[in-house]
Amino acid sequence: MQAISVISSTFLSGGIFDDGIIAGGINIDSHSRIVGSGVSAVAIENTPTFGGGVTNNGTINTTKDGITAGSISLFSGGIKNKGTISASFSGIQFGAISTFGGGIVNSGAISAGGTAINFSEVSTFAGGISNSGKITAADQGIFFESVAVFGKTGAGGGIINSGTISAGGSGINFANVSTFAGGITNRGTILAGSAGAGVGLPTLHGVATFIGGVVNSGTIARQTGIRVISVGVFSGGIVDNGRIAAAPGREGILVNSSGDISGGIKVSSKGTISAQSAIVVENITTFAGGITNSGAISGRAHGITVASLTEFTGGITNNGTVSAVGGSHNIFVGSMSIFSGGIVNAAGGVVGGAVGPAIAASKVAIFNGGITNRGDGWCRRKSKRH
């Protein structure tokens, strides 16, 4: 079959099911509606090849999955939603696919009782995921696992959000991935009950290689902002150009239980972080690129914490504000073999509010670069090293 089109104000009850070969895709126009009661609205299964992708400009309403695909060798053309998908389970769900090409683009609305965009057991996901619309999910916003290769470096790869993601679980997260390329970029709003933008999970195998970094130029709020955990090699760094507001007891940026991290962490002059602990880097083998703050960091307990590493290079530099009102310290470095690059509160930098030392270094075998204050503000005690 060349294609399936639903056009001219069609009301289709019972959904679309394909287990043959399609080269021209499935297209639902803006005047049409598909209702699936007890079945997925669009289901593509048990076929060697599917071409042309799925495009929805209309309305999909189902008590199961909105668009689902599984047991396919080659799926090309991607999935594009410009309309509305409302599903009791997943909005878009697929699994057991050897190669998925074309990516996923949402500029409409996806509402799910489970996960909005969900896939697993994919050998190669070629392309990226882009949301400029609205995603609402009781569980995860965008989640995938058991993927060998996802995305590509450069344009069209990775995950980009310029719309709104509201999720009971993580906004964006994935686990058990061999190679992820293209990074995560948030230019919109992510409101999440777990991590706003997550790379890896503590309860599952994480990510072997992550390329492209994480950049926030929008808003991430409610729980942990950016979380990197159980990653073998992470490159591209973490940048906050926007706003991260984490819940009490949560971190603004957390990098934990991983191998080699490069690219550093940067908070620009436009960036703000408010959290229990604003930036935490711990239980890492090597961290390269340092931490630089030119914005406003506020931690209820800690400003910046770096602990339990083998080696940290690039130092910590503050050009902005690091506040820990009532907390134990503003900047803490401890329990590592080598710390290189020093700690600098630059001219114009403000470090203050902590009950304990503004800057503390403890149990560091080799500390290179010293501690320097050129700034305007300083906590009640300048520094402590032991």
Descriptive key words:
386 residues, mainly beta, 2 domains, 29-stranded parallel sheet, 15-stranded parallel sheet, 0% helix, 62% strand, elongated, disordered C terminus
Unreliably modeled segments: 379-386
Hey, roughly how much beta strand do the residues contain?
Answer: over 45%
The gross shape turns out to be elongated
- Rg, Å, rounded: 23 Å
Structural class: mainly beta
The termini sit apart by: 73 Å
Structure summary, number of beta strands: 44
Number of helices: 0
**Which percent range fits the helix content?**
under 10%
Can you summarize the main beta sheet?
Answer: 29 strands, parallel
Number of domain modules: 2
Report what the structure shows.
With 386 residues, the chain is mostly beta strands. The chain has two domains: 103-236; 244-386. The protein contains no helices and 44 strands. It has a 29-stranded parallel β-sheet that branches. The protein is elongated, with a radius of gyration of 23 Å. Mean pLDDT is 91; it is low at 379-386.
